[in-house]
């Protein structure tokens, strides 16, 4: 009740001194109806759809100032529009780190007697990093319109999502690792490559060379590790993105188990290393074995995830078949080369 009285008194005073007029701001991006959209997680865990932009693309559109009381003038100290790229660390919310900050002055100080629309264009804007919302950090891009006033400014924000595209890695060797416990367990596992795009398929095989303990369960996890801060103030957050059961039951010596894990069904962002010296996001394949006494054995291997453009669209089954054929072909070639050398 007390706050209502304060607000009422403020409105009365503003009207008495000629500041009673107010306005609403609206930002409309030029190709909003035809531009691609993507779902992006917000800080509270919900998902919203945003327009997608890429590095170097122009951002243009219109800012509309709509007066709430027709016929009544609105005095202002200027109207501007900003394009901002910003990193916010949740443990340091007082400081927002802006790595992109562009400003367009739409109108000088003066009066508005009617609603008005202003065109804007930020040509070939640099957008070096992917939009990201994590457990301890948020990287976002947004347009912010501001109408300056004596007592309180009127502002409006319009957020966009930026995707960073990469070319296909030329050097993409297979991953080969071993897990062993002396005289008890010896496992060799191999993945077809170490770098995967976000819609890719992980293809591999696991070979049991020695099994003298009773394994009852085996799975592969995709783990996202988010690192924020630096020096003594470094925070690590591990999040298990995916669990893929390889087998349920005891393997025998000489057995081989194929792996085929589709990435498209999971919420993944590209690998991000030392972004603006504020945070990193890395991914690991984690092989987990559990024996009958509930002891856990695991081996981690880092992989690189990257985003590519939608140039060729293939079904998931086609992607898996092609990946498996390439993997088997490379294995056969390596085996033949070893035989020839021997």
UniProtKB/TrEMBL annotation:
Signal peptide: none annotated. GO terms for biological process: intracellular protein transport. Keywords: Protein transport, Transport. InterPro entries: Arrestin-like_C, Vps26-related. Gene3D superfamilies: 2.60.40.640. Belongs to the VPS26 family. This is VPS26, retromer complex component B.
């Amino acid at each position: 009740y007390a706050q209502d009285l304060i607000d009422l008194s403020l409105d009365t005073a503003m009207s008495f001194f000629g500041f009673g007029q107010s306005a609403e701001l609206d930002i409309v991006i030029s190709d909003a109806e035809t531009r691609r959209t993507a779902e992006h997680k917000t800080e509270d865990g919900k998902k919203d759809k945003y327009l997608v932009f890429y590095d170097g693309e122009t951002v243009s559109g219109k800012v509309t100032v709509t007066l709430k009381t027709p016929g009544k003038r609105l005095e202002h100290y200027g109207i501007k529009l900003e394009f901002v790229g910003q990193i916010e660390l949740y443990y340091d919310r007082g400081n927002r780190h802006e790595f992109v900050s562009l400003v367009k002055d739409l109108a000088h100080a003066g009066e508005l007697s009617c609603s008005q629309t202003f065109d804007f264009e930020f040509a070939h804007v640099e957008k070096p990093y992917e939009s990201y919302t994590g457990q301890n950090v948020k990287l976002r891009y947004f347009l912010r319109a501001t109408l300056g006033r004596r007592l309180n400014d009127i502002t409006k924000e319009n957020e966009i999502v930026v995707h960073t595209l990469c070319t296909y890695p030329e050097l993409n060797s297979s991953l080969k690792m071993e897990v062993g416990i002396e005289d008890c367990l010896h496992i060799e596992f191999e993945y077809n490559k170490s770098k995967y795009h976000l819609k890719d398929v992980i293809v591999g095989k696991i070979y049991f060379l020695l099994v003298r303990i009773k394994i009852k369960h085996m799975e592969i996890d995709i783990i996202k590790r988010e690192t924020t801060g630096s020096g003594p103030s470094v925070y690590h957050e591990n999040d298990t993105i995916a669990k893929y059961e390889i087998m349920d039951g005891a393997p025998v010596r000489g057995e081989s188990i194929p792996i085929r894990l589709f990435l498209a069904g999971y919420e993944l962002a590209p690998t991000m290393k030392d972004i603006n010296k504020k945070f990193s996001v890395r991914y690991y394949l984690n092989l987990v074995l559990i024996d009958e006494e509930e002891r856990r054995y695991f081996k981690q291997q880092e992989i690189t995830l990257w985003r590519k453009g939608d140039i060729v669209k293939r079904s998931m089954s086609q992607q898996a078949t092609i990946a498996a054929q390439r993997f088997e072909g490379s294995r056969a070639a390596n085996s033949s080369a070893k035989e020839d050398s021997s």
